């Protein structure tokens, strides 16, 4: 096999492109892998946490509050609602009418955000195993994964630039869904390069470094989006798109893969594509890890999808939209120390003692317990405490769970396909989370409180299911 880079040589003649990478090349790989992970995480942190919810909220506000009501102060109206609920104020007829509009607005924006958030995730979920399968088989001078990473970065950037002009929820659903699919085209093969190119003994460390980059990117993205929105509104989408393009292309160009032109593959048949959705699920250990991941991200998605709205409509005293956009990133910053600590310690510790399950179980239970804090105390300080405790759990989980999945891969030569299925599990949880949360908020007439105990139950179950994995300690 011909090498595209003199720094990495194939270990075997296997169809899978495996590597024994020199130290300098490994450092460069880790650097640019982390940067690409950072760029993708920055996109999710800025768009999912700030810009998309604010855009949905703006569209729904202008649809519901029309005419003389178009200048209503939502913060003041939410405060009035709290006083009416507490029995300290009796609203006049006009206030009562506006409170009715507020209830409709709270329910409508929650439902619309759940639709916008979920449709694209569902599409990405269905396509992830196919993308992984095709990336396993791609022949190019740039290797198996690079063409997909480049295509996803370029296409995703183009669609980000279309987001600000979406005039309706329906148009947002189309653009955002295609955007999520294209970013998945880059993200899935990028993750598969870890199984391709990182020695087994260093997988936990690399997962920790990339997990740190991903988490830091989400925080920076949220902070940047909140600040940019306050000054340039929805034009804040544009710099996010540019960063996605720069970071993904930097990985493709500067962490070059071996050529895969001479790789031998069997003809691709439709039957094998269909089987790609569930081949790995035939393995019991992989199946339990996958089900656990779905439930954990389902609970996590339920608890986090409405963070921006909870700051405006759940906690007391309520914040304005601008205050919420600036406060939401601070919540993520509050979680940074505990998350960093968990990421630094868990990956190395897990590699050292060669254990995965205790870390994943403890991480899930910590996350589950944190959801009860704002349920008991619906205040801003409680929200800060909750994210700090969640940081310990999530920081551990995001590092060790990736290593656990690599450990239980049924077929190392189909890492792209089976890690794509792992991403499918995460995406399924992320897709169902907003749907379930939207249904809960709708059932309870715009109330956000019930999402917390539901998230607690789901993540607790997810944590305990990991104990069913037998092949990994």
Write structural notes for this entry.
It is built from 16 helices and 2 strands. By secondary structure, the protein is mainly α. It has a single domain, classed as Up-down Bundle (Growth Hormone, Chain: A), CATH 1.20.1250.20. It has a two-stranded antiparallel ribbon with strand order 1-2. Strand 1 (8-10) and strand 2 (19-21) form a beta hairpin. Helix 3 (93-137) runs antiparallel to helix 15 (415-443), helix 10 (307-313) packs across helix 11 and helix 12 runs antiparallel to helix 16. The protein starts with 7 loop residues before the first strand and ends in an 8-residue tail after the last helix. 54% of the residues are buried. InterPro entries: BT1, MFS, MFS_dom, MFS_trans_sf. Keywords: Membrane, Transmembrane, Transmembrane helix, Transport. It is a multi-pass membrane protein. Residues 46-473 form the Major facilitator superfamily (MFS) profile domain. The chain crosses the membrane at residues 30-52, 115-134, 146-165, 171-191, 203-230, 236-255, 294-315, 327-347, 359-377, 383-406, 427-445, 451-469.
